[in-house]
Each structure stands twice: as structure tokens, then as C-alpha cells.
Amino acid sequence: MRIAIVDDNQTFAENMKYVVEDCLRSRQEVAEVRYCVNGYGILGDVEEGRNYDIYFLDVEMPAIDGLELAQRIRRLEPEANIVFVTSYEKYAVPSYKLRANYYILKNEYRQEVPLILERIWQKWQEEKERTEKDYYVIENDIRTHRIRLDDILYLCKEQKYTVFHCRKGTYRERLALNQVHQKLPQERFIFVERGYIVNLKYVSDLRGQEITLSDGENVCYLPLSRQLAAQVRDQVALYWRKR
Question: To the nearest 10°, the Cα dihedral for 106, 107, 108, 110?
């Protein structure tokens, strides 16, 4: 994690740095915290690709003020976490126009900074959990590969492996098909035959003992088990109704 503090009052910037580092220690977070009394120093880092996860910016500063600095950071880092730290409430409205994440007064920073860091950590954790739900991770001794669930058309058994047939290629994992199924969201991925699992998102047709998958470019025809046919039709119909 990288955190930038920009304030033309060096004593205040140093005190802010201490409070931030104290919060990081309490969470056992490893981070680089840099303070700067001139906004151009941090802006230079960003322009050279050395980005920060959180920016604490004073508003009234010489050379380049915090509002302009935030605007220029936003152009380069649209998702940056920007926190304005100022002595004046009058900047609250313009700060939100720049999509500042938070706005705190300097006389409250010791109480507010820990709360803001906690909110940002919580947001990151929620985003991480959402991201993890959107991917399947294949791990082996050589490499780790993430596959977007939405890119998987179907999976099939191939000896001791499960083969992932995706929109842009195939991947293999040395794991039984039913074990892989347990790691997938089962409201979306269902068995249609003992050796096949399909992504309901791409089911386009069911006829007799055959199921058709299509993503607009690729079309696949897979066998449909007699024993599972009625159950599969019910699950497909339910999925279509929900969509």
C-alpha cells in the first residue's frame, strides 16, 4: 500500500504521517507513507506511473492547490482514493464535485483518519470478495491462472483432468469434474451429463438429448442425459425467467 500526504505545513504533514503509520501498525499493514509540502512532488510521481492508493490533500497551498492537484490526479487515476484535509468547511462542495472520497477538518484529523482508513480497507475487502466470486482460480506447481466465470462455456472430464472450454481458449486442471463443480456457483453451472457441466448463461436451446450453447460467435452441441433431462429443463427455464 502507498499513501501520500500533501500539506504545505510541514509540522502538520509530519503529524498526519505519524497518525497514518500508527493506524497501519495496529493492523499490521505494510505500507509506504510519503509526505510532501509541495503538490508538484506527488504529481510528478503520478505522472511517472508511481501511483498511490490514498491521497490526503490540503486545499489551500501555494503553487498548486489541493483542488487542482486532485483534478489532475483524477485524470491519471480515475479510481484514486482522495481525502481532503483542510481548516475550512467552505471547500466541501467543490471537493465533492471532484469526487473526493472524504473531507475532514484539520482539527478533527486524529479522530477522523483512523475511521477513514477503516472505511477504505472495508471497501477494498468487499471489492476483493466480489472479484473472487467472479473468477475461478486454477493453481498448480507451475502457474496460477484466473478464469472469468462469464467466459466459461462448459467443462468436461478428460481422464484425470477437468477441461475448461472458454470463449477464447481452453484450460486444464488436474481435478475431478465433481470437485470442480463444488467450487463453482451451482445456480449457474449444472451437470447435463455425467461428463459435462454447462454455464446456463450460454444455453440457447434444448432438443431431445442435445443441449446447444452459444455466445454469439461459438456454438457448441453437447449431450443431455436422459436421467437429467427433466431437471436440466427446469433449471434452464428458471434461469431464463430470472433474466
Answer: 80
d(CA 216, CA 62) in angstroms, rounded, equals 56
pTM of the model: 0.55
What radius of gyration, in Å, describes the C-alpha atoms of the chain? 26
Superfamily in which the 149-242 domain is placed by CATH = LytTr DNA-binding domain (2.40.50.1020)
CATH topology of domain 2-133: Rossmann fold (3.40.50)
Domains in the chain: boundaries? 2-133, 149-242
User: What are the grid coordinates assigned to 106, written together?
Assistant: 484539520
Taking alpha carbons only, the member of 218, 220, 141, 152 closest to residue 188 is 152
Q: Beta 152-158 vs 196-199: how paired, if at all? A: antiparallel
pLDDT at 89 over 70: no
Grouping H, G, I as helix, E, B as strand and the rest as coil, residue 90 is helix
User: Is the pLDDT reported for residue 198 higher than 90?
Assistant: yes
